[in-house]
Model the fold of this input.
Amino acid sequence: MIVDGRAVAAVAVLTMIWGSSFFLTTLALEGFHPMSIAFSRLALAAVVLVPLALISGAGLPRGAEWRTAFVLGAVGLALPQTLLAYAQRELPSGTVSIFIAAVPLFTLVFAWLVLGDFISKRRWTGFAIGFVGLLLLAGPTAFAGISAGPVSVVMAIFAAVFYAVSAIAIRGMKGMHPFRATAGAMIMGSAVSAVFGISQMPASLPPSGAIIGLVVLGLFPTGLAQILRYYTVRRSGPVFSSIVGYLIPIWAGFLGVAILDEAFLWRDLAAYGLILTGLLVARERRKPS
Done:
């Protein structure tokens, strides 16, 4: 596994794109059903990525590769995206993003249990420090009212688990070009969610904000981001790529202060410091011999 400037840049771009997806989902929910959102964003991404895969020469999956694409499309895309959209109908987007920020810890555990990766005490410690920072960032008010939507909480947690499982699955997709793997996953994911997604489409034209939110969701957090994710996991491993989960709340907080004029608390600064410290501690320059 290689952790270099390219991998770091990919993680930075993923953080910015995925950090905006919760806000975009909130917009889309103003006019679309959760199942329609999941289907539409996958279908939109497929419309863009399939021609890109064909034009680039990567092509579409072949033979047994379709089985892998199905797993990634169903487990790594259709299921978690549907669960998140449902969860955001009851929970604030900020609260949902905190649950999704647990993806790095789930990925760490799965990499250890499933792939047999060596996880040093330093890495465990670093990720634990980062998670404490997330809890501090969330604060007592972030989880206020979740007792009114326990099912949504479970949905958000399972979405995080599915994202972690899909990262492990990508690690095993050896030899597949990022365009081919991602295009195949989009095809299978949209096929899995098509029946329920199409049946729940609105009867009348939704508000323009909802349409814009859905289109941007399909093109960027679903399409472009999945190519970058596949590239990063294959290059630097699922554990490294999963740190995006810890960085998303920081980016979301920055947007809140810079664009929405939200208050910046000293607690936030301490939380960001813990998160970044945890990531620095977890960083390993080389594998143990």
User: Anything to note?
Assistant: Residues 15 and 247 are 6 Å apart (CA to CA).
